[in-house]
Specification:
Blueprint lengths: L1 E3 L5 H12 L5 E3 L7 H7 L7 E3 L5 E3 L1 H11 L11 H30 L7 H24 L9 H16 L10 H11 L2 H5 L11 H5 L8 E6 L2 H12 L2 E5 L5 E5 L4 E6 H7 L18 E4 L3 H11 L2 E8 L5 E6 L5 E5 L4
Parallel strand pairs: 1-2, 5-8, 9-12
Antiparallel strand pairs: 1-3, 3-4, 6-7, 7-8, 10-11, 11-12
The protein binds glutathione (GSH).
The site of glutathione has 11 residues, from helix 3.
């Protein structure tokens, strides 16, 4: 069997990953429906990706129909769907939400890429974006309700993770990790598994983005995220101890952020870390000694902020002192284990 289409299409990619998970042999041809339209046309005149050329030469289209055929005809009884009717219903709902998000993502992409700017219709784009947001919100909830159902050998897990990679790449302002922490975490976890690595989003033939072509732009420091037992408690403590302002606490309670200026201090539940990567991590509060890292809060009045932190329940790690280079510094440790340096600006 031949799978035709580029891996930056979420529909093509979900098929490639699913076939691999089902141990179904196939070859892949990176042919673009856009930049190599005629070449695609020669394979399948309808020019839809994915196209699956079956062993007898018949061309199938539509990722869901292709996957239906493959499970029925080639997978030797293997399936990526649950047998239980209730679980199947929930997985189908999740996949339908993910596919709706992909469709809306593709519509927005085509509107912006295939039409000249003067011909783009703003109300249509706004409508598509609203639908995309609604699909992502419901998908985030679906993951929250049944996190264990979304894994690399389930169609719900594969399609959701592939969807997130696609929409967060093309619509980063809509599909941000801050707004959809569970989708982002699921994607990070599944993208590290072998079938996802074998069929990468930026696979053969995929054109690098403008940013990639620009090449040398160095990344900027965006977040410091501490994994903690109780995200709400960590936010409350930081507010009381340091006078920082909360940006938000996600309704799942597993992720929250503080407004700390140009970079962000976030707190994530330990469980989210477990979803993000295998192998576990060292909890900052678990040892008598702090982790060998700190965050530094800059203030004009270190003794006052130090005192405020102690009153809120921080432990003193080093009392305020004047360094030879003229900076006043102190260290306190928060109940979640975070080591905080309080310091005056360096002159
Ligand atoms: N529902 C289809 C959607 C497939 C689709 O829209 N693919 C895009 C590429 S991402 C395509 O073929 N575009 C070319 C066109 O529609 O003209 C599926 O699940 O496969």
């Amino acid at each position: 069997m031949r799978l035709i289409g580029m891996l930056d299409s979420p529909f093509v990619r979900r098929v490639a990953i699913s076939l691999t998970q089902l141990d179904v042999p196939f070859t892949h041809e990176s042919v673009s429906v856009i930049s190599t339209f005629e070449k695609f046309q020669a394979i399948n005149p309808v020019v839809k990706a994915p196209t699956l050329i079956c062993d007898d030469g018949e061309a199938l289209m539509d990722s869901t129909l292709i996957l239906h055929y493959v499970e029925a005809a080639c997978a030797k009884g293997a399936t990526l769907w649950p047998r239980d009717a209730q679980a199947l219903q929930h997985d189908l709902r999740a996949v339908s939400l993910a596919l709706a998000a992909c469709e809306k993502g593709v519509q927005q992409l085509y509107e912006c890429k295939m039409r000249p700017t003067s011909k783009q219709h703003a109300p249509w784009l706004a409508r598509v974006q609203t639908q995309l947001q609604a699909a992502l919100q419901a998908l985030e909830q679906a993951v929250q309700q049944r996190p264990q159902a979304f894994h690399e050998r389930s169609q719900a897990g594969i399609t959701t993770a592939v969807t997130w990679r696609f929409v967060s790449h093309h619509q980063p302002e809509l599909a941000s990790e801050a707004s959809y922490p569970l989708l982002a975490a699921l994607s990070a976890r599944l993208e590290a598994t072998s079938a996802f690595v074998q069929w990468p989003f930026d696979g053969p033939g995929v054109q690098p983005s403008a940013a990639q072509l620009a090449g040398s732009a160095a990344p900027r420091m965006g977040y410091t995220i501490l994994y903690v037992p109780d995200v709400a408690a960590s936010l409350n403590f930081a507010e009381q101890a340091f006078g920082l302002k909360r940006r938000f606490l996600h309704e799942s309670g597993t992720y929250g952020e503080l407004d700390t200026g140009s970079t962000t201090l976030g707190f994530a539940a330990h469980a989210l870390g477990d979803m993000n990567y295998a192998g576990g991590h060292v909890a900052a509060h678990a040892s008598e000694q702090p982790l060998g890292m700190e965050i530094a809060l800059v203030t004009d009045d270190v003794p006052a902020l130090h005192q405020r932190a102690l009153q809120a329940g921080a432990r003193e790690w080093a009392a305020p002192s004047l360094k030879p280079w003229g900076q006043t510094v102190s260290w306190v440790r928060c109940p979640d284990g975070l080591l905080v340096e309080l310091c005056t600006p360096v002159a």
